[in-house]
TrEMBL record:
InterPro entries: Ca_channel_alpha-2/delta. PANTHER family: VOLTAGE-DEPENDENT CALCIUM CHANNEL SUBUNIT ALPHA-2/DELTA-RELATED, VOLTAGE-DEPENDENT CALCIUM CHANNEL SUBUNIT ALPHA-2_DELTA-1. This is Calcium channel, voltage-dependent, alpha 2/delta subunit 1. Signal peptide: none annotated. The lineage of its organism: Eukaryota, Metazoa, Chordata, Craniata, Vertebrata. One of its GO terms (cellular component) is L-type voltage-gated calcium channel complex.
C-alpha cells in the first residue's frame, strides 16, 4: 500500500529517477575505507507503450545497489 506514495517522487522526477544515482563518498561502517554507493530502480515495463516518455504499467520490482571501495 505504501509503494504508491514512495514511488510518486520517481514519477515526478521523470527520466532522471531512472538513471544510476551515486552517493557522496563516505567512510564505511567498520571504518576500513571510503565507499561510494550507486543505485538504480528496476522496473517491469510490460504493457503498451504510448510514446517514449509515457509508459503504462510501470511496476517497480526493486532497487539494485552496489558499493564501490
Amino acid at each position: 500500500e505504501y509503494l504508491d506514495v514512495l514511488g510518486r517522487p520517481m514519477v515526478l522526477a521523470g527520466d532522471k529517477a531512472k538513471q544510476v544515482q551515486w552517493t557522496n563518498v563516505y567512510l564505511d561502517a567498520l571504518e576500513l575505507g571510503l565507499v561510494i554507493t550507486g543505485t538504480l530502480p528496476v522496473f517491469n515495463i510490460t504493457g503498451q507503450v504510448e510514446n517514449k516518455t509515457n509508459l503504462k504499467n510501470q511496476l517497480i520490482l526493486g532497487v539494485m545497489g552496489v558499493d564501490v571501495s
